[in-house]
Amino acid sequence: MRAILRQATLDDIASVAGVSRVTVSRVLNESPDVKEITRQKVQMAIDALSQQPFTKPSSDEFKPRRNLLVLLYSSTQSHTSLSFIQSAMQTARKQGFELHIEDVSFWSCQDASSITHWCIEQRARGVVLLPPFSESEEAMQHLAQYGISVVHVEPKEASEYCPHVSVDHHQAGYSLTKRLLNQGMRHIEFIESSPMNAKNRLFYLGHLDAVRQQPISALSRHLPSAEFLNANGDYQRAECLLSGDSWPDALICQTYGQVLAAIHTADKFNIVIPEQLKVIYLSEELELPIQDDRIIQVCSPFRSLAAGAVDLLVKRVRHKLNRHDYAQSFEPQILTPQQELLQ
């Protein structure tokens, strides 16, 4: 057995310092609202814990707690909504498991070894890894040595040896575009954003697969290609698309800035949203920064994704998961208060 320095968590620091987890977070974020004496207590707790050794057991000696699962994420490196966490906890509870949620943003080290050591210390039976940790093959291998089951959430490259859940952005682009086409729309613009992230690229490819099957305007077959559209800001792009007598039936926006520009420009040219123009937003958030019931929002199915990940993990630890069930995908939600727009 090899002694290493243990990876202290926010709960560990809060317990030793005699303060709340929120206070520890404020100290680590250098908030000015924390008293100096409290700041010193937290720092002393961190110093004490950083020197406390943790003896890593061998794989034969490791005994996990029967019904303990953990979920690891970083609030500074990935978008994890409250609804995702709530759904994961509810699903685990229904299955008779306890789920510990850990934000590793404040860990001094976030590598594969630190993740493994923490899971061993917690005696976890299984772990859900969110990006960027779901990209780590090394973490999966380390955890597997101790028989700790792993499920990845939205890995960039899925492993055939590890269960994972993901969002089918390609199918979402295809389904949404087909709905618009079925309503008689023949001019659909997908506003370019540079660089385009991987999720939006898949959505766009699905969009293309749908429009290629219809005899529609050539403008909806490609991203705006003119240098003027690519070189200027959101408002200039929106004005180019909406000025004149023939504007698109629908605008698909990749950023909220593009959404605001579309709304502002439509108002300027007396184009009524959504009756004369559908504005669609590919969002990472569950709610818009500013609510507007005219906007159609496409976002990740947070609750379904979380429930699917925990269900896979429970099956894995119970040895009831078949290899053909390792990959599960979910289509993004299409949210609008005026649901009849896309029926």
TrEMBL record:
The record's Pfam families line, in alphabetical order, gives: LacI (PF00356), Peripla_BP_3 (PF13377)
InterPro entries hit by this protein:
HTH_LacI (IPR000843), LacI/GalR-like_sensor (IPR046335), Lambda_DNA-bd_dom_sf (IPR010982), Peripla_BP_I (IPR028082)
What Gene Ontology molecular-function terms does this entry list? Answer: DNA-binding transcription factor activity; transcription cis-regulatory region binding
List UniProt keywords, sorted A-Z.
DNA-binding, Transcription, Transcription regulation
In what residue span(s) does the HTH lacI-type domain sit?
A: 8-49
Q: Which domain of life is it from?
A: Bacteria
PANTHER family attached here?
LACI-RELATED TRANSCRIPTIONAL REPRESSOR, LACTOSE OPERON REPRESSOR
The name this protein carries in UniProt is LacI family transcriptional regulator
What does the record give as the organism's lineage?
A: Bacteria, Pseudomonadati, Pseudomonadota, Gammaproteobacteria, Alteromonadales
